[in-house]
Specification:
3-stranded antiparallel beta sheet; 2 domains; Adenine-n6-DNA-methyltransferase TaqI, Chain A, domain 2; 21 strands
Length: 344
């Protein structure tokens, strides 16, 4: 433990859905009201006890050692027969995700404090350390290859935009209403309406969503649907996640197909409907490209949680070629997405 610095320091956070750690600079005067903080140690398991239910858990790196954390981020050393890199993938286990949920009693809003003792009762099945290292190495290489191909495909297709038409997003879309239902208000079994949750946009869904195949959750309360009669989602609509723990805020999906039940947009989302036709698949890929997303970075607000407002989105610029070219781009990128998914 060290005294909380008064002249600024680097703070480490943990992304939800086991997406790793991130570092931010705390300016003088903006430090948290705690007398002492802990130094981060590399190659440890770290968890955000307030958002563990949302899989805010990670393995620290050597880069993280420059940072400090509060008591909300306990760290755990691995035994000698365990390889930390193996656990970067082991913590993605669906069973462990459910265990974290059950170990986090309900609280106000999204704050559900983890019972650390209960978390530590979970049992992982482990191969020997040499096999752990081999598995981790293989999976890391696959992740790197997938990331490289995703970056290359977007860079090639969206770097030559000067000859395309350009308009403000607010001139291209009409915004729809979204609800504020939490996960507790949804279920996976039945209901008269479906819901698109921002957490699924950030983590589960790709650029384009086939609602017929994605197991969208049902809304438990049947009285919710009539309140959104004018905002039932349609094919071709796009939905932005307006909140995230990092620069993923603004992640978007394009709706390709929808289930038979009416579907509405959920908590921390901004649904929008094109005012004129776009090629199938184009918006989902373009609005997630670096060419577009770079516009959002200076518009993001917040410290602990990052958000993008509807007003900010309206003033961003959308670029697009002819309708036939949009469709061709959508087809090509969707085929690449399918190929990458097949090899994951």
């Amino acid at each position: 433990m060290v005294p909380t610095p008064k002249d600024g320091y680097v703070r480490m956070g943990v992304r939800s859905h086991a997406k790793g750690t991130f570092l931010t600079m705390v300016k003088p005067g903006a430090e948290i009201e705690e007398k002492e903080l802990s130094r981060v140690k590399a190659h440890c398991l770290v968890v955000n006890i307030v958002f563990a239910w949302e899989q805010a858990i990670a393995i620290t790196s050597t880069e993280d050692e420059k940072a400090l954390v509060s008591h909300r981020f306990p760290q755990f050393l691995f035994h000698d027969d365990m390889h930390p890199d193996y656990f970067r993938y082991a913590i993605l286990n669906d069973s462990f995700e459910r265990h974290l949920w059950l170990a986090s009693p309900s609280g106000a809003g999204r704050n559900k404090t983890l019972n650390v003792g209960t978390m530590l009762e979970y049992s992982f099945t482990l191969p020997n350390k040499k096999e752990q290292e081999a598995i981790a190495s293989c999976l890391t290489r696959l992740d790197s290859l997938i990331t490289l191909h995703q970056r290359k495909r977007r860079k090639r297709l969206f770097t030559h935009l000067l000859v395309w038409e350009q308009r403000k997003l607010g001139d291209c879309f009409d915004f729809l209403k979204n609800n504020t239902l939490s996960r507790a208000d949804l279920n996976g079994e039945n209901g008269i309406a479906r819901n698109v949750h921002y957490g699924d946009i950030l983590i589960k869904f790709g650029d384009c969503l086939d609602g017929e195949q994605s197991d969208l959750p049902f809304i438990t309360d049947d009285t919710v649907l009539p309140k959104f009669a004018g905002s039932i989602l349609s094919e071709g609509d796009v939905i932005f996640a307006d909140t995230a723990e990092d620069e993923a805020a603004g992640k978007c999906i394009e709706l390709r197909k929808l289930p038979k039940e009416p579907t509405i947009s959920g908590l921390h989302t901004i649904p929008a409907r094109p005012r004129f036709p776009f090629g199938t698949g184009y918006l989902g890929h373009y609005l997630n490209s670096d060419a577009y997303h770079r516009q959002l970075l200076p518009l993001m607000q917040g410290i602990k949680v990052i958000s993008v407002s509807k007003a900010a989105l309206q003033d961003t610029q959308v670029r697009f070629p002819s309708l036939s070219e949009q469709s061709a781009i959508g087809v090509v990128l969707s085929e690449i997405d399918a190929l990458i998914t097949l090899h994951q």
